[in-house]
Amino acid sequence: MDLQGRAVPSVDRLRVLLMLFHTMAQIMAEQEVENLSGLSTNPEKDIFVVRENGTTCLMAEFAAKFIVPYDVWASNYVDLITEQADIALTRGAEVKGRCGHSESELQVFWVDRAYALKMLFVKESHNMSKGPEETWRLSKVQFVYDSSEKTHFKDAVSAGKHTANSHHLSALVTPAGKSYECQAQQTISLASSDPQKTVTMILSAVHIQPFDIISDFVFSEGN
């Protein structure tokens, strides 16, 4: 009897079962997102919630505006002059998100997806003199905008989709288990794919917690 030959199919079946189990586990860990901006008394502030298996895993409240420089032709149609578009994150935006043990992400789309904001959060452990200490921070911001969108842009020369990214970002640094809260304006510079253009993101009325939320729809103690 060829026991070795019989063992191979068994190993293959086990591998298939493990793959099916892994897929089912991913499906069971369902994530849903909610835009609760209508609950805010501040018309400029948005409220986003990401939930996994019916439990809140990321909450974000903030107002955001983007200052976007773009080129237009001067009246002589020879020279270029730089104009500025002020783009605010509006209510009713579409939202997506995901939660992880050490990495979470929030994505927001508005004006028929002409604009998209992605915010990436990471949780890290640091060796301090008093022992290991965990913190979380905003590690990346990406803003995609379409300068052919007529509401905010007027006759842009290089009209079309552009992507603006942060560079070596470390913002909103907060001890693990706590939320970040700050009412003051904060600015983040984003390098655009539109040559020699820098987009400015202005955040205000911020209250964010991307990890370790204990109570559903409730922020932990603010930092």
Automatic annotation (TrEMBL):
Signal peptide region: 1-29
Gene Ontology CC terms: dendrite; early endosome membrane; endoplasmic reticulum-Golgi intermediate compartment membrane; growth cone membrane; late endosome membrane; lysosomal membrane; recycling endosome; synaptic vesicle membrane
Record key words, sorted: Cell membrane, Cell projection, Cytoplasmic vesicle, Endosome, Glycoprotein, Membrane, Signal, Synapse, Transmembrane, Transmembrane helix
Pfam families (UniProt xref): Lamp2-like_luminal (PF01299)
InterPro entries in the record: Lamp2-like_luminal, Lysosome-assoc_membr_glycop
Example of a GO biological process term: establishment of protein localization to organelle
UniProt membrane topology term: Single-pass type I membrane protein
Limits of the Lysosome-associated membrane glycoprotein 2-like luminal domain: 44-213
Entry's localization field: Cell projection, Dendrite; Cell projection, Growth cone membrane; Cytoplasmic vesicle, Secretory vesicle, Synaptic vesicle membrane; Early endosome membrane
Family statement: Belongs to the LAMP family.
Entry function: Plays a role in short-term synaptic plasticity in a subset of GABAergic neurons in the brain.
Protein name per UniProt: Lysosome-associated membrane glycoprotein 5
Gene source species: Pongo abelii
